[in-house]
Amino acid sequence: MDKFFSKKYRDRCRKSLESGRIMSMFNEDCICLECKDKEIKDPRYEEARDAEAEEVKKGKYNFKGIGK
Ligand SMILES: [Zn+2]
Prior knowledge:
Elements: H1 2-6, E1 22-23, E2 30-31, H2 33-40, H3 45-57
Antiparallel strand pairs: 1-2
Zinc ion binds near residues 13 and 35.
């Protein structure tokens, strides 16, 4: 997680992360809230979220996501 918090720019849109950042549900990208909104509208978002929840249930907290 060190890399996540030390990052200065969003992986996806390359803008400043000053206004907030969040981990992508699809992969390990660090994205802004704007990109997160787009992600939630993705038809595969639920699939990605469920897959992550399943991994966490198994005790795996380093799930890399289902991929974009
Ligand atoms: Zn963004």
